[in-house]
Amino acid sequence: MDWSQILNQSASSIISTTTIAYALAAVGLGVHFGQAGLLNMGVAGFMAVGAYGYAISILSFGFPWWLAALTALFASVVFALILGIPTLRLRGDYLAIVTIAAAEVLRLLLLTVAFDDVTGSADGLFGFSGSFQDSNPFPDGEYGFGPWQFNETTLWPVVVGVFLLALSVLLVWALMRSPWGRVLRGIREDEDAVRALGKNVFAYKMQALVLGGVIIAAGGIVYTLGSNASPGVYVTSLTFFVYTIVLLGGAATIFGPVLGSVLFWVLQYFLSNLMPALVDAGVLPFMTANQAGMVRFILVGVGLMLLVVFMPQGIMGNKKEMTFVK
């Protein structure tokens, strides 16, 4: 086995648009789930709104990339309002059912041929990265060191993604240290007690849903920067991946989702390269390379189970904040 190649490919995932996009989605879900106690299972829907809002704004309306991104974020606000107004009075499992259903409805709308001219149906949307790359400030050349190597085309989305991630983390950190954040955590712990103090619990939940939804949609935009928007990406398993990341890093933390995203994707890349290599080396003769590659999902699932059992607060979490295991 070529351990050098396996480790280099695993390390390269630390700085990638995929890791950054999932980190943004996890930060947004941290606002929903970790801070406000909202069991939102529609993460894939918010990311799809961001990705398709961005792509459609460019292809159908001819917006520049930055205006398309703002339009997509505004669309996520509208989606959060449409989703939140009738559902935020629900609790626990009921809210989860409604949000996962809403994300599936949105995905099926993107797949239907009725809107093929706008959404591209099953083929998705592509060819919208020209405006974004035209604004690329980096001259032609190679950048980076070690396993982190980029050219001018691949570096620009990473820089934009890191900027959005840093801005989102800073914003959430500041808000959670404010009186607004303390009320939000109070709602997570006991919303009846907060309501008894005269606070409008519904309004706070709606604000949290909008804020987290905008950050998740930003993750969808970063995921599709310089690539295509495909409905096959925004499936239910994406939501489960983001929950895994949040639980891994710490649901009620600010920086935990970022750490969780890095660890999750490093582990995914490591196992996806290691398992087929073990088959080729004869260590797993009873498997094919494709079968061994899928085993990584089983291993990650087992790891998540053990994490919830033995470290439910996550790597960076506080043991006192474990409301999600109630």
Average pLDDT taken over every residue: 89
Residue runs with pLDDT of under 50 for 5 or more positions: none
Count of the separate structural domains: 1
Largest sheet: 2 strands, antiparallel
For the terminal residues, how far apart are their CA atoms? 44 Å
How would you classify the helix and strand content by structural class? mainly alpha
Query: How many β strands by DSSP?
Result: 2
Beta percentage is under 5%
Helix percent reads: 55-70%
Strand order of the largest sheet: 1-2
Number of helices: 13
What string gives the helices and strands in order? Answer: HHHHHHHEEHHHHHH
Q: State the shape.
A: globular
Radius of gyration: 20 Å
Please give the structural blueprint:
Blueprint: H1 3-12, H2 17-35, H3 43-59, H4 65-87, H5 92-111, H6 116-119, H7 130-134, E1 142-145, E2 148-151, H8 152-176, H9 179-196, H10 201-224, H11 236-249, H12 256-280, H13 289-310
Antiparallel strand pairs: 1-2
Describe this structure in words.
The chain has 326 residues and is an all-alpha fold. The chain has one domain. Helices cover 69% and strands 2% of the residues. It contains 13 helices and two strands; from the N terminus they run H-H-H-H-H-H-H-E-E-H-H-H-H-H-H. It has a two-stranded antiparallel ribbon. A hairpin with a 2-residue loop joins strand 1 (142-145) and strand 2 (148-151). Helix 3 (43-59) packs antiparallel against helix 4 and helix 4 (65-87) packs antiparallel against helix 10 (201-224). The mean pLDDT is 89.
Summarize the structure.
With 326 residues, the chain is mainly alpha-helical. The chain has helices at 3-12, 17-35, 43-59, 65-87, 92-111, 116-119, 130-134, 152-176, 179-196, 201-224, 236-249, 256-280, 289-310; strands spanning 142-145, 148-151.
